[in-house]
Amino acid sequence: MTFQPRVRVRLVPVATFAIVALLALGAGPASGSYPSTTGATVLGAMQWSFLTQGPVRSSPVVSGDRVLVASTDGSLYGLAIDSGRQLWRYEAGVSIVSTPTVAGARAYFMDRDNRIHAVDVGSGRRIWRRETGPDLPLNWGLEGWDYGMGSLVLAGDTLYVGSGDGAIYALRPTDGELIWRVQTGGRVRATPTVDGDTLYIGDADGVFHALDRATGRARWRLETDGHELDSESAGYDRRQIYSSAAVHDGSVYFGSRDAQVYALDATTGALRWQADDGTSAWVIAAPVVHAGRLLVTRSSSTRIRALALDTGDAVWSQRTGDLLFAPAVPMPRGILVAGGSGLLVAYDGDGEEQWRYGLGAGIWSAPAQSDGFLYVGSDDGAVRAFRLQDEPAPTLHVFADEDVAKNSSLGARPGHAAVVDYFAARGYQRLDAATLPAFMEARVVDGAPSVVVFAVDGANEAMADNGGVSLLRRFLEAGGRVVWLGHAPGVWDTDAEGRIVGLNRVRPGELLDVDHSNYNTDRYGVWPTAEGRRRGLRSWWMGGPRIVPSAGVEVLARDELGAAVAWTRNYGDAGGMFTSLYPSTDPRRLDEIRAVAEYGIFRSPAAQHHEAKPPE
After folding, report:
1. I want to staple 361 with a disulfide (CB 3.0 to 4.6 A). Which of 126, 241, 377, 378 is the partner?
2. Domain residues for 481?
3. What's the number of domains the chain is made of?
């Protein structure tokens, strides 16, 4: 909905005002709902990952045969694009959260001390470094969430950047020499936007500026609603402009922490419209003009909205269920958003969700695309390279049901809910006893790839005998994958109320065609095999149950007596796979279980993993 706010546009002389820039820092479908993947480019397998020594809160940048990654560990890394191997490491000495800007053989970035660096892309050697001033104090002092800093922009033969000292700088790219400097009224955390001969940028005082690109002289300025809002009385920041601007067809668009999106006449600064979404959620990320609409992401309302360019009216709006500081990313087909708990969510052009995938660690900057790959940095210190593809990707699911859990050795554990929540938070759709059979029947018919993690090991309808073959077995033979946590399916005999009354070593063999005649529940020390390590198991644990390996079984972990505690079996030519793993509520162990579940689908069997080397 559009309305006319209390906003002033002033045409001013070349006065004092400054800016800092921030490059885009950045509820699933109901149970039983399975969105298609035909309307958006699909996330394929992870090809490599690289672990820095601190959160990665800027966007990776592709430059030729390498990927540049800035980390809060104070380093800029040059990685081989094909493997993620570290080629060089440049030490800035303090955290880096701005996204590097690459021009030719050079990369430019700003560190947390507001120093600007120019680095050789080929070698990581410093070319020059320029000091700006310390951060200006904030109006209140407890504004918080100061996660990002602006990137440099090269236009013509000039570099432009805003600094926390409240100034906007124009620099000579060859040596960093000052061309002009303009002081604003607050820190600048937004990346400048250059269009023609005008530079656009907002500051922490809630003022948006249009400057002459050649001289820095003011053309006009706009005081947003946030300029006069009191953050202290609200208890959170209502003033700062972190969003960079988008310029399109004579209009300039930006968002603010006052919860508004603004559209201005690019020449005069006159307000064309402003819009909110009925919440006080910040608009941190830059709006994106795509397919004739303005894509806007919002922080705590978790929304992505497509707005009409001429009116600001919502064409569609979706809640992602995740805090959004990063801008929407147009893909070859569809739109991608990344969230603060680590979700990647894709939509088609009409706003219908197509798929989601969770990294498990916050994403605060926009993923980068290049030549069919997606590069994502996150709060676990990693940058990951995923292949993008057109064919449908496997859908991920977690099975949990309160009634089944009552008679489940795993479901009875106090931490059971943590297992379910872990997978659900990473984009796994929930299945229960009512929705599981229909889901499996549909996959038997269409053969669409899918993975189900069984977070309870009790009896369910999929295990029932149906003409001599269970639904579980038909699902596996049609290409479905199952990761089973806990005791083997069918191993417990139960009474009419479902209570366990005995051990059945025959039934699991009938269900899975895996010999369980020596099945027992003894617990010993367990160590991954070479194949288990390849699939994602990393460390030893105390565990059971255990079987003696038989034909067709690939052992992933053995105990000290040689019995198989973790194992997998393939079914037919369609890629079906049953994997038996230990139950765990330890987040580190859950990460390993997830790695095994996604092996060969969202994680390439040949994926390479590297960690940062110490500086030389």
Report:
1. 378
2. 395-600
3. 2
